[in-house]
Amino acid sequence: MIKKFVNAEFPGPLGYLTGYIAILIGAGLTFVVQSSSIFTSTLTPLVGIGVIELDRMYPLTLGSNIGTTTTAILSALASDSDHLRDTLQVAFCHLFFNITGILIFYPIPYLRFPIPMAKFLGNRTANYRWFAIVYIILMFFAFPALIFALSIPGWYVLLGVAGPFVLVAIIVVIIKVIQAKKPGMLPVKLRNWKFLPKPMRSLEPYDRVMQKVFFCTRFQQGKGSSEQNGNATSLESGYMTKASNGHGHTRL
């Protein structure tokens, strides 16, 4: 019942308003609990067990980004009169920055790419459990540290090093979109990525390395346990056969 209610759509032509109502609900609930982290952390397991659909979680999260700005506004209102103007300006910058992001990434369906990105990362993590840890380390530690280090000599160094990578990423995204939408527009060789070495198009080689480095002991124990279980089963079967032949009944 909860699943049906939360994921329901408005009937008829009003269906397009459902997402915007979800944004308002997310903003209101976040205002009540005064924490977007609590709100999203509470809903994330519900998405994982299938109670809330990912497409519905997206506008709720966007609304949460608006609701969390009320904390800064309330704090600004509590400041003294001499600094009230400055603190309110900062608080409203936070508010309108988040509203601008929503206006960019939600009204136009084609720009809601965080949803397929979330599905992509979720599928990769489901197949390769180490992927989540590597992703966090790269995105939250290694990548920011690299950008900071490149920015120290000057913007031209950052642009010279990061520019080619950004250009390649844009080209790859364009090819991926054409592969999905209009593959006939591409040369035969570019209709898939099989022409690339496997480490450049699949995580399987890295997964084998991770298994050997981190999980080899566990697999060996599992193998040994299986062999022991097999031997125990054979001995038990032999004992049951012997008991049946010798005494006319089977002992368990």
Please tell me how large the radius of gyration is.
Answer: 28 Å
- State which percent range the strand residues make up: under 5%
Roughly how many Å apart are the termini?
47 Å
Count of helix runs? 11
For the largest beta-sheet, the strand count, sense and barrel status come to: none
Tally of extended strands? 0
Low-confidence stretches: 216-252
N-to-C order of helices and strands: HHHHHHHHHHH
Shape assignment: globular
Question: What is the helix content?
Answer: over 70%
Q: Kindly report the average pLDDT value.
A: 82
Transmembrane segments: 20-46, 89-108, 128-149, 155-175
InterPro entries: Na/Pi_transpt
Biased composition (Polar residues): 222-236
GO molecular function: sodium:phosphate symporter activity
Structure write-up:
The chain has 252 residues and is mainly alpha-helical. Among the domains are: 1-111, no CATH class; 215-246. Helix content is 73%, strand content 0%. The protein has 11 helices and no strands. The protein has helices at residues 2-6, 18-33, 36-48, 54-67, 69-77, 84-105, 114-127, 130-151, 155-181, 204-214, 216-247. Helix 5 (69-77) runs antiparallel to helix 6. It is globular. Mean pLDDT is 82; it is low at 216-252. GO terms for molecular function: sodium:phosphate symporter activity. Residues 222-252 are annotated as: Disordered.
List the helices and strands and how they pair.
Elements lengths: L1 H5 L11 H16 L2 H13 L5 H14 L1 H9 L6 H22 L8 H14 L2 H22 L3 H27 L22 H11 L1 H32 L5
Helix pairs in contact: 2-4, 3-4, 5-6
Key traits:
252 residues; mainly alpha
